């Protein structure tokens, strides 16, 4: 049933550091790669080498410019995927029960063999985390790499989501956000981790760490002393010449 | 929102069909035999035709039966049950009226109630979505129910009642537009709350995540049609409500009634196109659009 569980044993999710993300899109590529070759229907591309390529992605990186009231604007790279919300509106609207939230770890998944591709779950998601695959006609979303994190065939260091494993700047963290002592929870606590669009009431599990405040310094122009005018008013012979030429 | 023709046709046609079934269930007009057959045929053709049209936008329509399983939480699933319930009950009622010349009144009332409930469930599929502030309001249900009932009265040949109800539809439509225009801002959604970066300063999209379009932009960020929104609103209002009301105030014959029905149908299609085209999904904020 698409009733949401009142409580999940774990709250597995991601913590994304907006201070550290460099916007390289490596997580987008590794996500597309892993999720095309493994669990579920592959993430299709249409007109991949043509004029207007369109494709299914579970993770996308936006870049924003933030202009404070004073000082310089700053660029923030902003990866976005499913937030595995506690109060996931995408699950309850599903007419077939294909969408569900797992009791054991809180991951929101789609059972593709039950999905009729009506698209209503994507309508209900405020974050644009779900995309209807145009070839398979089923809804695709981040699985938190459920086929990696419990996969004993993989070396232990690989048992994290592909995006986390690949991030070259360490901007993505994976763990149990339901456990207050976990590394990710500590990180959220220390850095003031935030929810996206909290007014939607979805209670996202994934948290975002805001960019650290920029340091400031007093403006000192080291060249200024060297650039002071040498002589404002000419004197002596040059003074006479200046006046004489003025009169001509 | 992308105004998919299948969904526009579905909501308009099945709305009209269930509206007519509501009146037929209540025994209005009082008919039997072949006349009743024609009335029920029109009602069932509209209702079933609309429901079939709605399956055209599915990615995997062969699994449509699975949509009956999640009635506990999903309005789409409830709509399926209510629609089938209304059609079965009204089917039995119609059979008795047409072939046995028997009006089982309580059965008709149940069928009428189920027909209204079906339209309400349809409206809640849209009205429940917090992500689309324009829809997320009881006015959405009022808009769907009033157009369905008024259209039903019109098809049932109740000229006086239809004129009154169509005037009401016009009023509901105007209020829905006016209230809907400001709701997105009133809910406090902005690119700052979407990104959580508002505490630093003003946010704008610097670079989109992809150079081409994608499913999200095609489905949710439909901005093309809004250019002529005001003109289309006037067209919708005139043909859906004002013109049919004026026609029904004339001495009504079959020809005038037919023109009124066609006018109402056309106006409702335009109105429903606007219902989708003007709806703004909050995901547009991440793309610096609405």
Structural features, described:
The complex is a heterodimer of chains A (248) and B (290). Chain A has 248 residues and is of the alpha+beta class. Chain A has one domain (12-209): Alpha-Beta Plaits (2-Layer Sandwich), CATH 3.30.70.20. Chain A is 21% helix and 17% strand. Chain A contains 7 helices and 11 strands. The termini of chain A are far apart. Helix content of chain B is 67%, strand content 2%. Chain B is built from 10 helices and 1 strand, in the order αααααααβααα. Chain B has helices at residues 5-25, 33-54, 75-99, 105-127, 138-155, 159-186, 191-195, 215-220, 229-249, 254-277, and one strand at 202-207. In chain B, helix 2 (33-54) packs antiparallel against helix 3 (75-99), helix 3 (75-99) runs antiparallel to helix 4 and helix 6 runs antiparallel to helix 9. The relative contact order of chain B is 0.14. Chain A: InterPro entries: 4Fe4S_Fe-S-bd, 4Fe4S_Fe_S_CS, ET_IronSulfur_Cluster-Binding. Chain A: Keywords: 4Fe-4S, Iron, Iron-sulfur, Metal-binding. Chain A: It comes from Pseudohalocynthiibacter aestuariivivens. Chain A: Residues 12-42, 72-104, 106-135 form the 4Fe-4S ferredoxin-type domain. Chain A: This is 4Fe-4S dicluster domain-containing protein.
């Amino acid at each position: 049933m698409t009733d949401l569980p009142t409580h999940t044993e774990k709250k597995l999710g991601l913590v994304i550091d907006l201070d550290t993300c460099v916007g390289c899109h490596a997580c987008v590529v590794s996500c597309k790669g892993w999720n095309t070759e493994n669990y579920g229907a592959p993430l299709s591309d249409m007109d991949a080498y043509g004029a207007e390529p369109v494709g299914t992605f579970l993770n996308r990186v936006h870049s924003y410019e933030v202009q404070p009231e004073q000082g310089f604007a700053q660029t923030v790279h902003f990866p976005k995927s499913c937030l595995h919300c506690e109060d996931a509106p995408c699950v309850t609207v599903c007419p077939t029960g294909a969408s569900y939230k797992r009791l054991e770890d809180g991951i929101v998944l789609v059972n593709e063999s039950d999905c009729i591709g009506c698209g209503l779950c994507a309508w209900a998601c405020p974050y644009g985390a779900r995309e209807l695959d145009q070839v398979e006609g089923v809804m695709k979303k981040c699985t938190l790499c459920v086929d990696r994190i419990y996969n004993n065939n993989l070396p232990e260091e690989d048992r994290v989501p592909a995006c986390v494993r690949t991030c070259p700047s360490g901007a993505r963290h994976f763990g149990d956000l339901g456990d207050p002592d976990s590394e990710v929870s500590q990180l959220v606590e220390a850095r003031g981790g935030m929810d996206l669009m909290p007014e939607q009431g979805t209670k996202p599990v994934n948290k975002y760490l805001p960019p650290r405040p920029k340091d400031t310094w007093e403006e000192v122009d080291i060249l200024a002393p060297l650039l002071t005018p040498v002589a404002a008013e000419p004197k002596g012979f040059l003074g006479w010449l200046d006046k004489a030429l003025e009169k001509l | 929102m992308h105004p998919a023709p299948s969904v526009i046709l579905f909501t308009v046609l099945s709305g009209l069909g269930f509206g007519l079934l509501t009146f037929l269930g209540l025994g209005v007009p009082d008919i039997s035999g072949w006349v009743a057959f024609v009335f029920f045929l029109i009602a069932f053709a509209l209702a079933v035709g609309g429901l079939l049209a709605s399956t055209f936008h599915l990615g995997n329509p062969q699994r449509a039966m699975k949509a009956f399983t999640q009635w506990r939480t999903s309005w789409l699933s409830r709509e399926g049950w209510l629609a089938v319930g209304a059609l079965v009950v009204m089917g039995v009622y119609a059979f008795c009226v047409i072939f046995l010349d028997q009006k089982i009144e309580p059965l008709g009332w149940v069928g009428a109630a189920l027909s209204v409930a079906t339209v309400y469930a349809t409206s809640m599929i849209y009205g429940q979505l917090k992500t689309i502030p324009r829809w997320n309001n009881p006015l959405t249900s009022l808009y769907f129910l009033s157009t369905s009932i008024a259209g039903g009265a019109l098809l049932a040949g109740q000229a006086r009642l239809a004129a009154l109800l169509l005037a009401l539809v016009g009023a509901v439509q105007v209020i829905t537009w006016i209230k809907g225009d400001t709701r997105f801002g009133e809910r406090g959604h902005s690119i700052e709350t979407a990104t959580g970066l508002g505490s630093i300063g003003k946010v704008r999209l610097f670079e989109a995540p992809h150079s081409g379009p994608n499913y999200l932009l095609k489905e949710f960020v439909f901005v093309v049609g809004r250019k002529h929104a005001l003109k289309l609103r006037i067209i919708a209002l005139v043909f859906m409500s004002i013109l049919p009301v004026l026609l029904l105030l004339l001495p009504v014959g079959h020809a005038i009634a037919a023109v009124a029905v066609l006018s109402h149908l056309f106006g409702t299609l335009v109105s429903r196109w606007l219902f989708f085209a003007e709806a703004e999904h909050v995901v547009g904020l991440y793309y610096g659009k609405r």
